[in-house]
Amino acid sequence: MDIRVIRASDIPHVQTANITNLPENYFCKYYLYHAQSWPQLSYVAVDSQISFFQSLLAKPSLVQFPSSTSLLDTGFHRSSLRSASKSRWDFRPPIPQPLLLARQTRKHVLTPSKVSRPPKSPYDPPKIVGYVLAKMEEDPADGIQHGHITSLSVMRTHRRLGLAEKLMRQSQRAMAETFGAHYVSLHVRVSNMAALKLYRDTLGFEVEKTESKYYADGEDAFSMRMDLSSLRQAMIDEDGSDEDEGEPVGSMGKKDGAANPEKEKETKRKVKVGRALGVGELVEKNESQKA
Questions:
Q1: Partners of 149 in the β-ladder
Q2: Among 3, 64, 149, 152, which one is least packed by beta carbons within 10 Å?
Q3: 179: which strand partners?
Q4: Closest Cα partner for 136 from 177, 164, 197?
Q5: Calpha distance 147→131 (Å, rounded)
Q6: How far apart are alpha carbons 72 and 36 in whole angstroms?
Q7: Structural domains of the chain in order of their starting residue, each with its CATH number
Q8: Average pLDDT, stretch 73-91?
Q9: CA gap 44, 32 in Å, rounded
């Protein structure tokens, strides 16, 4: 599973996920508007590895079985068909399909080589299983720079994996880091209890107000908001944690240099070095000591 910034080539697949899961749908140019105006805020979850069993469930006709194997079971065995008129106890209940498949393929192990599908190439489109579409409010009514979550969706096959939370947190961090957003807002249906649990209990959003008949079908919406000040402070602390390990250079590098000039004078001492330290002074000093 990979979470990355949305690309222009992802927009048709993002729109497919939106139409599949949500009643609020948008045109492709609306997604492109978000991707081009705020390219750092919208993210997608890509499932690059599709398991063999998922492909088997999606297209069971692609599985090739030996010619002697038959997957049809009507519930009557050949012996019971011949003696069906003799006894009514010859009827046997149908075998469950998973048990039947395991029994008839006992000697034939299903492996990816049994599936007749072309191998995956770099030109295959990515499998978008989730996305978050976000933007910055261009003309905020309160005059405070903040972001807004336009749409969030995860495919049913990939839910309960924490993808929605990861997508939201990545977008929120980009809002605070790139645009200096103070908070993020969104709208959610009053009846969408799963989304309310995610926003309120997991992410920490608070209901600011209820907007009547916000959606096209007349349903009310909760206007929710989350403060990003703690996230911004955490990023500042992370930046300030990298202290310089070198020695202080100059007056700007010394912590007490400007505050205590007298202390700095006390530590200074005039010494002679090089040619200033002559031999004559040493001779005179020695003679005076002898005298």
A1: 134
A2: 64
A3: none
A4: 177
A5: 16
A6: 54
A7: 2-50+124-236 (3.40.630.30)
A8: 48
A9: 14
Look at the block and give the residue holding tokens 């809002």: 175
Pairing of strands 128-136, 183-189: unpaired
8 Å CB contact between 63 and 55? no
Q: What is the pTM of this model?
A: 0.59
What pLDDT band is residue 141 in, cutting at 50, 70 and 90?
confident
Whether residue 180 is predicted with pLDDT greater than 70 in this model: the reply is yes
Q: What is the mean pLDDT of residues 24-45?
A: 93
Q: Is 149 helix (H, G, I), strand (E, B) or coil?
A: strand
Q: Provide the residue count of the chain.
A: 291
Please report, as a single letter, which amino acid is at residue 139.
D
User: Which of 24, 20, 17 minimizes the C-alpha distance to 44?
Assistant: 17
Amino acid occupying residue 77? H
Q: Please give the residue that has the higher pLDDT: either 87 or 143.
A: 143
Residue 189 near residue 156, CB atoms below 8 Å: no
Q: What is the pLDDT of residue 68?
A: 43
pLDDT (0 to 100) of residue 167? 96
Helix (H, G, I), strand (E, B) or coil at 196: helix
